[in-house]
Design a protein that fits this description.
The protein is of the alpha/beta class and 299 residues long. It contains ten helices and 13 strands.
């Protein structure tokens, strides 16, 4: 069985997009499609059901997902080991695969990884940044040792989790908005307001919508985007309210935007998570403790 074909399948599952999978693998889209077709022909059944421009895993594809992900992970670890030996002339320490959501940069976790690696030569992190659904999918399939994400989609019967920080929502408005004079608002106060939310494929979109529904109304959504820069640009030229997480809102320029507390904001936790079945490498446990102590200002 060709590892390139399997890699094409795994990247297509992770990205849910043949074009993006091709970019990650430095191949053309047609090559990725042909490799997956070759794998399906070898297996004797389809792995994807094509629906126009979208694709959905067949039951057979879902069943083999874990097996193929383990093959790819093992192969990539072998490649990393070979490359390390070639460059250094000696065996590497323990590699820990860490998958993280894009907002991780606002928590300073990349710098803690670099600092921890500098004083712990046995810690060799392999980091991937991707959307939350992709992180959870990789965690589920055993594609990473530890994930940093929210706890929204994680079942504590399957995963162990170490809470890092609690996330809440804030409201952001343009400085000249009539709402800018407010220090705080309730969810019910947002009824009738035009809202900017995270994109509808984001877990945070669902949290906001459900919270508004619990408050007795369906939100009037003017724009949904995962790009804060686009949200803020739209905010400056409209009378909208941007509902975003507090870790983002605290960085916005106070002379252009006003940040309003949301008194009854839904809450969720950002966590380090790992599969109970796999356990956590000891060096990863030490890093998580280090990151937590760093956040608390203890080191």
């Amino acid at each position: 069985m060709n590892i390139v074909n399997i890699r094409c399948f795994w990247e297509a599952v992770k990205t849910q997009n043949f074009t993006e999978a091709a970019e990650r693998l430095y191949l053309t889209q047609s090559t990725v499609s042909k490799n997956i077709s070759a794998l399906e022909k070898e297996l004797g059944f389809l792995l994807f059901e094509r629906r126009g421009h979208s694709m959905v895993l067949t039951p057979e594809g879902q069943q083999l997902l874990k097996n193929f992900s383990e093959i790819v992970v093992a192969y990539e670890r072998m490649e990393e080991t070979v490359e390390f030996i070639r460059k250094t002339g000696h065996l590497p320490g323990e590699t820990v695969r860490i998958f993280m959501i894009p907002i991780v940069g606002r928590f300073g976790l990349i710098s803690t990884i670099n600092h921890f690696s500098a004083v712990n030569p046995g810690f060799n992190p392999s980091i991937e940044i991707m959307d939350e659904i992709q992180v959870v999918l990789a965690l589920q399939a055993g594609g990473c040792d530890v994930a940093f994400c929210s706890n929204i989609m994680l079942d504590d019967r399957l995963y162990d989790m170490e809470k890092y920080i609690t996330g809440k929502f804030k409201l952001v408005v343009a400085k000249d908005s009539p709402l800018a004079r407010k220090k705080s608002m309730h969810l019910k106060d947002l009824e009738g307001e035009k809202l900017i939310l995270k994109h509808l494929d984001s877990l945070l979109w669902g949290i906001c919508v459900h919270a508004c529904e619990d408050a007795g109304f369906y939100p009037n959504i003017a724009l949904s985007t995962n790009r804060p820069d686009i949200a803020l640009e739209y905010l400056r030229s409209s009378d909208c309210v941007y509902m975003t997480i507090d870790i983002e809102a605290k960085d916005y320029t106070p002379d252009i935007y006003s940040v309003i507390d949301l008194k009854d904001s839904p809450e969720f936790d950002f966590v380090f998570a790992w599969r109970k079945a796999s356990g956590l490498p000891q060096i990863a446990r030490e890093y998580i403790d280090y990151a937590y102590m760093n956040r608390k200002g203890l080191i």
